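Private note to self, pasted from the team thread so I don't lose it. Backbone tokens:
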């Protein structure tokens, strides 16, 4: 199980990236929303889409959920 957050600042693509608290970029995210503790990134991205419909997984910590 991992702890997931979504970056409140959208990327240039318009997506809000979902990260684990173990991501190398996690500490550099100025504003983030706690999503919960999940066994996989798909559930975390699904939860994030309730807040930000254009959510995507981070290419580093949620590679299997990163689409762009």
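Design output:
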């Amino acid at each position: 199980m991992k702890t997931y957050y979504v970056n409140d600042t959208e990327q240039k693509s318009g997506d809000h990236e979902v990260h684990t608290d173990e991501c190398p970029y996690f500490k550099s995210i100025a504003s983030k929303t706690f999503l919960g503790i999940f066994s996989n990134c798909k559930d975390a991205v699904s939860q994030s889409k309730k807040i930000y419909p254009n959510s995507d997984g981070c290419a580093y910590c949620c590679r299997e959920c990163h689409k762009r």
